[in-house]
Batch of 4 targets.
Target 1
Amino acid sequence: MIEKKIEISMLYDFYNQLLTAKQRDMIDLYYNQDLSLGEIAQELQISRQAVYDTIKRTEKILYDYEKKLKLFGLFNSKIASIEKLKEKVLQLEEMIELDSSKKELKEEIKMMKSLFDELLNNSIL
């Protein structure tokens, strides 16, 4: 359940401007402010079932946006590439401290350049 809450919150961060004000409010209240369906219904003066239906429909819309636009997936891919680069920099730093050969250092730098190229080539321009 926690994973879904995080996922919906992240999708909301990416796509909230594509939702109606009513959809934004309900998703924000439910997922980000952790209000119950009953509390949201009371605050918005609608039925609990209407809140539930709107939230479920909006979740589907958010997943559909991600399926088509893939912004969240691209973001996660970029984060993974940056983490790989950080790891490579740390490895390179360690190799320098251990007085590794120039050949080994050049190979690490070559791999880092490749990761940078991958990161830059997959960017949305």
Note: Residues 16 and 24 are 6 Å apart (CA to CA).
Target 2
Amino acid sequence: MRIFHLSAECYPIAKVGGLADVVGALPKYQNEAGLNAAVVMPFYNRKFVHENEFEVVFQGATLLGTRRLYFEILKEKTDKLGFELFLVKIPGLLDRENIYSYPDEKEQFIAFQICFLDWINWSGQTPDLIHCHDHHSGLVPFMMYHSNLYRRLAHIPTVFTIHNGQYHGAFGWDNLDYLPDIDFYKTGLLEWNGGINPLASAVKCCWKFTTVSPSYLQELSTNSNGLEYLFYVERFKGSGIVNGIDTEVWNSQTDPMLPEHFTAATIAKGKQKNKQILCDKFNLSADKPLIAFIGRLVTEKGSDLLPAAIERSLTKHGDKVNFLILGAGDTATELALQQLKTLYPQNCNVFIGYDEALAHLIYAGADFLLMPSRVEPCGLNQLYAIRYATVPIVRSTGGLKDTVIDFGEEGGYGIRFNNVSVEDITASVARAVELYADSKKMLQLRKRMMGLDFSWYRSAKEYIELYQSLIPKI
């Protein structure tokens, strides 16, 4: 079964969020299960491209409205990522360093999609299925089925995965001419709220759409930045499949970023050693429960509540708990956290920015990981924490609700709360402090977490079953 994954991001080539982690892992595990899955993404002038060898496998020219574009399809020669990697390079448009935030971002991603379809069409390839990810590839299903240029591809099934339904990539009808030779009687399939909406169009036109957790599928009908009615109408076309994690990368026994490796049999010793190194680095005591936050400091993640919740917790518990924050984003939140570091130097520290090695050490050394998210389609951080026997403290939403069971319930191992509020966060911190004092219970939960399976093997199997339902006699 030949599958193409289309995405704006893919780890380790270019990453902003969880989209990159998914696209960088899912195809690899699908290939291990017997598929022939490849990734197609825009060319970015980044480290991975310079350090690896690529070959040009196709050259062509296309139109973006009246603008003529020349493009190349580059393939990484060794398939070192566990799948074929193809990059769409367009001089002057898709050959830059950053992924997002250019003034002509709309043109970048529309051109990316057109060049992909031109390549597949003109080279005579007939994949069994095309899997699009987020709005950056959301126009592909419409163009495949309703552009005269791509009639040869019109029978190919498409699956569209929504990693974050808050972002639609919408633009005005004045740019309709960017889409090549379309059936104008079908333009209603592009429309939402008076404009062209790639995410809405993908949901309408794809054969099946998926979300990155079952709960998020339900939540889109009530919170999707204006597409709620569409998701309600199309809900029977959707499936929720929880993301997996790459258990080869996230392996406490082999992770090269950890100073101390550990197994389920050596959890106590291994985590304490990592915790000691981490606390020494940030001038914190390793004898107290360490609660960490890793992620973007944005309202979506609930990070704006962290300063007040941390200060209230430290006031309530005195010298009995420590906090460590790794992230960047909203300037006001960054400043408030820095002030807490100054006010409580023995109990709170902050690293503004992102460091992959430090993140691994925090997952392995912290006792708890706090995720007070307002929106969390799936979440990977809690899965990394579980993998490294760190108790997740999460708001009950989206994938957090689907992957974390409160330790007060049968088979539970985490801490869940319902409301995005300082009160709920501090109440959960209090539960964490009390739980930490029960070393026997903590060890029991840690062993339980390390026995759970959130690997891509499970998730890849669910995607393959979905593909098979769309492709007869596979």
Note: The domain at 2-244+457-470 is CATH 3.40.50.2000 (Rossmann fold).
Target 3
Amino acid sequence: MKLVAGILSLIICLAVPLSTYAIALVKREVILDAQEYGIKNKQMALTDFLQPWLVYEEQATILNETTERAYLYTPYLLLANDARDKARSKQTVQLADSEKILSDYAGCLVFSITLNGNSEKFADGMQVVIKQDKKLIKPYHSVINPALKTPWFPDQPQYAAHSYFYFRDQDLILTKPIILVATTKDKYEHRFNFNLANFK
């Protein structure tokens, strides 16, 4: 619940580009479908709920709760998340609320990234870019949270940092794959491959 609240408070906008692909102009039937998904899966664990929008770090050898990951918050996911929250707190899910969310969050792509490190300062000064073809796109806004001890401390990974990055959708070709690259203090590149057309 804390993560969802954080997501909704941190997300400034979400992509609603004009396209026939998955990240596309959201029509009424898509809004209703997203609401239904959120209501139907209100009891699902959040990690399972978010699974379709998850990408693991490309060099990961084990895929579990300790693996570095990134999420793409599409309009569909934002609406489904909102419906899930409302259903869990026994509030009515309204079409007008979803339309307002889309209006408020139109025009950008939002990614959250969870990285692991062995010191509290490992994520300080993290740099993130999107690589698409030969183009490098920088976020126009970032929220880099302090690293916190993991439940596995002092075992690996000792610390995890959850951060959010906002990109203008007009800077990207939304029908082509991208690589989201986060470079940490140790100059290590954490890479996440997203095929934008495949995300609902």
Note: The chain has one domain: 2-198.
Target 4
Amino acid sequence: MNIQKLIEAARKPEIYAKGTANMWVDAHIAQQLLETHLSQDTDLASRKESTISSTVQWILNQVHGDSLTILDLGCGPGLYTERLAEKGHDVTGMDFSSNSIRYARESAQQKQLNIAYIQQDYLELDEENRYDLILMIFLDVCVLSPNDRAKLLKRIYRALKPGGTVLFDVLNVHHTLGGSESKDWQIAEQGFWRNRPYLALSETFYYEEQNVLLNQHVVMDEDESIDVYRFWRHTFSPAGIKQVLAEQGFRFVSCHEGILPDCDLYRSEDVTFCMALK
């Protein structure tokens, strides 16, 4: 085993340095993620069905309309899009994972729901004046670098109709990132990261000046090839969200806490739902 190569891969990187691998395009990991999305035993990839149903109802209570044109960014296997379509809305889902999109299309067909699905990186969203409502649910805004976040919000603004609404959730300042540094390792015949023997070194790094947390996973195969997966995490204050949205031309509307139940990942008070108008 090339220990030095492993040590180099596992070092704390410069902030926002990209990993060497993308878990969404790995067929094995994508299947593990889909199963996690659909599981009712965890909130790791998607929230539980009861929470999704209550969230969809809350969203529609905020954004009124009998037949809204809605885009769900990072739609996964279609857990929100199906509920929105069942309520009579014109719904499109976009996700980078071909595995999730395939499942979502098959599920919609079985349920005879007319939902359009697009397999695409939402950072490449390229539409204009089309949607009444654009959603990003399950803290996606929190994992984007500042540059990617600005790029996406600019594209969302362009894709919304005049007066359209963007609605997303974020971890807020009640959720503490500092002091969360940790290390863990796993060696297995097969598991989440591979369907063959592997070693995984997982570590969290805190960037105090920027108040940013990195979850890094270094995975080595038997042939000593190494993949590095990196997931950044930010928190936002209401003032910070207002500034982020205003920089892209949005009119700030409101922030809402206490929408979700507590779970293993966060408390209800840790999550803020944000709405803004074009």
Note: The chain has two domains: 3-28+176-233, 44-172+235-277.
